[in-house]
């Protein structure tokens, strides 16, 4: 037994000593977790990051001064017009218009150079007189630059766009379709354009188009053109992972669906599933199943039942904001009723099929019978024009919608 009262008091204080949690719910500052060498590099690179961020903002038309990108665009146009001729044949004596074009291009080049030098000098002067930036401000600016560069990288990644499929299921198009699109867009289409316009005009068109691509007017024009079905059909030409014959067919029948999807069927013991199977059947179907089982008395307990679930997608599109949903869809996308078919390489393809009513009225192949009396449908799922889900309710960004119908079959 401990007879020392002082030791007893100390032990009691240890039990009830308060413990405080520091920085609870707060993230550590960048200055605490960033090595000094990296902090020094970021501090010296801060002016360069500001210059790059403002340059990307002007290219992407994100500047606060909306007139400034237009002035730069006009100067670039004058420079390109003076150095890239539009005619292939140039006379020996330069006309007055050519001299004027050269003079305007020269003045525009000097203007851009002097404006850039003035901006750099004024920026360095203001940073020298202002307080040094914190590491958090530098990191935020760096994230802004990386975000803009990532957007430009995704837009310039033509190879990725060529391999993308837009039917809402396929991740990539086949190599045959990819080669066809490269041949059409990269060779045939370019030769046709150069045949009717000069090389100079061709180069000026693509340079100016790249500079004005992110402007509000250009993006609005692209969205207006995208509303035309002819433009969409031309854009999606040659990149789909299905054949033209799939468009023209009336849709897959029940026989074809069973053949294409029977690999996804499951085998269950007949003894365990039989009570549930007979419970969901009508009188005529009940008698038919019993007759089938009577023919297969041998090995009844060991007999397996093959079950296959058919899932049909019902798709609709809204063409006008105040109109009702329509069963008319674009020719290159999924149709009114479609079914997802698994390919040998693991990918999936949307194939057009008959409606659920017609599939239910069809006579099934031998030894195949319906388990459910009717199709079981889900609620509508709304999506945008690319069939990307937007929610369970209709909204301003919803242009398409889809719901699934399921029904199961069994095979003895």
Automatic annotation (TrEMBL):
<dbReference type="InterPro" id="IPR052646">
    <property type="entry name" value="Peroxisomal_PEX28-32"/>
</dbReference>
<dbReference type="InterPro" id="IPR006614">
    <property type="entry name" value="Peroxin/Ferlin"/>
</dbReference>
<feature type="domain" description="Peroxin/Ferlin">
    <location>
        <begin position="379"/>
        <end position="412"/>
    </location>
</feature>
<keyword id="KW-1133">Transmembrane helix</keyword>
<keyword id="KW-0576">Peroxisome</keyword>
<feature type="domain" description="Peroxin/Ferlin">
    <location>
        <begin position="305"/>
        <end position="378"/>
    </location>
</feature>
<feature type="transmembrane region" description="Helical">
    <location>
        <begin position="37"/>
        <end position="56"/>
    </location>
</feature>
<keyword id="KW-0812">Transmembrane</keyword>
<feature type="transmembrane region" description="Helical">
    <location>
        <begin position="203"/>
        <end position="226"/>
    </location>
</feature>
<feature type="transmembrane region" description="Helical">
    <location>
        <begin position="178"/>
        <end position="197"/>
    </location>
</feature>
<feature type="transmembrane region" description="Helical">
    <location>
        <begin position="100"/>
        <end position="121"/>
    </location>
</feature>
<dbReference type="InterPro" id="IPR010482">
    <property type="entry name" value="TECPR1-like_DysF"/>
</dbReference>
<protein>
    <recommendedName>
        <fullName>Peroxin/Ferlin domain-containing protein</fullName>
    </recommendedName>
</protein>
<dbReference type="Pfam" id="PF06398">
    <property type="entry name" value="Pex24p"/>
</dbReference>
<keyword id="KW-0472">Membrane</keyword>
<feature type="transmembrane region" description="Helical">
    <location>
        <begin position="68"/>
        <end position="85"/>
    </location>
</feature>
